[in-house]
Amino acid sequence: xxxxxxxxxxxxxxxxxxxxxxxxxxxxxxxxxxxxxxxxxxxxxxxxxxxxxxxxxxxxxxxxxxxxxxxxxxxxxxxxxxxxxxxxxxxxxxxxxxxxxxxxxxxxxxxxxxxxxxxxxxxxxxxxxxxxxxxxxxxxxxxxxxxxxxxxxxxxxxxxxxxxxxxxxxxxxxxxxxxxxxxxxxxxxxxxxxxxxxxxxxxxxxxxxxxxxxxxxxxxxxxxxxxxxxxxxxxxxxxxxxxxxxxxxxxxxxxxxxxxxxxxxxxxxxxxxxxxxxxxxxxxxxxxxxxxxxxxxxxxxxxxxxxxxxxxxxxxxxxxxxxxxxxxxxxxxxxxxxxxxxxxxxxxxxxxxxxxxxxxxxxxxxxxxxxxxxxxxxxxxxxxxxxxxxxxxxxxxxxxxxxxxxxxxxxxxxxxxxxxxxxxxxxxxxxxxxxxxxxxxxxxxxxxxxxxxxxxxxxxxxxxxxxxxxxxxxxxxxxxxxxxxxxxxxxxxxxxxxxxxxxxxxxxxxxxxxxxxxxxxxxxxxxxxxxxxxxxxxxxxxxxxxxxxx
Length: 550
Hints:
The protein is mainly beta. The protein contains 7 helices and 33 strands. Strands 11-10-9-13-18-15-16 form a 7-stranded mixed β-sheet, with no helix packed on it. Strands 22, 23, 25, 27, 28, 29 and 31 form a 7-stranded mixed β-sheet that branches. β22 and β23 form a beta hairpin. It starts with 7 loop residues before the first helix and ends in a 30-residue tail after the last helix. The relative contact order is 0.14.
């Protein structure tokens, strides 16, 4: 059932409830992060990462002006972190949870407490950011409620969509980074989970509706490898939010979500309970360069009554009413109308895949593959004085871009790869200015209006470009990366080092437990990316580089 009875209290809130801004709370969670066994689709039991001996993780509900406090005890045999995807962490960069940039990771048998001020409302999620741990289940929804909802609806329903693998995450990473093309290109396909359950029994993933009621469906793609398209037979939807940003209503018959993206839609139920309907949550695989993109259909039931017949719509599209012409995000209009920043700094980034000199397949921005620095970049910024303004101190493969305070930044992304990529910027929302194709076909160019939509994760289709802008008003170290987790593992990431001297002024109160975990794992807590003094980067590795002819 969707939502399941055990989680109903977490998933459903009446839209008419108003929360008092005076009664801001500390929402305190005490989590033992552990390995557990799970079989979410009934087809394969395997080891996953859970909390307090259970999986899936509990859904987190907070409200504006709360403080979310998570005391995380790492009971794994490797490091771990927690990242609140989409929350800006203004003034709390050291709680962003990014290994190699804002922390060393929580050492095994160590504890770290994240204290996150809730200054935004909308649909977010929490996930591991230490290697591909979120692929092994270290993720959950994080819903931030306003004092009063902008739109009226009767019930709030979470719909977490995930491309799930029967193999552990590190095993998949090893395959994709193999030096053997035969191993790399061996197809592996995911299974769909809806709210962490799946399998052939459609009753496990049903969405219950009652005649005449209006539902807010919070659609979330918490996958690490696949795009998902969602639609309900014979039901219109109205988009009202993307990535935490409320939008003016936009009618649509279907929604496409890349990994990391969220979209809220309003759906008004039929006036009678005489018929049940199919919903689609199909996966598009966009992870292997040498394997053709596949569409993996998944169907669930929108149930009005347990004994009602199912409308005659079939998986192959026969009699289907769903229109798969997706609404472009650049066409959406935000409720809060903010003019976009100008352009002080232009950051052109070409996305491509190639075989590199280490005989592995890598993805990269401008042919520079990313790898995690030894010393977290935040600690480098705090301990290298005026040299924190030199990109070299953060390491070549970190791909650091230094930003002065309040710089207006334009990112121009050009995708020469055969796959789509969802790009996520930590610490900011991005204005989606323009989309187009690399062949400069004017018919494919779409420009935003005076008040462009803002979001934290933006899809870049193959052979296309997108122009994004943001203002550097949040001092810290902010990762920019493909949210296809394995594409990041293959090198598709970089970092913005924002206002280094203000980092010292505003973020020098690094939590003691953060430094303690570094010490336990033998990681230096000061100096450049190599743990050396100033610009001593003699052993900084710049390669591998693309091989010609591939």
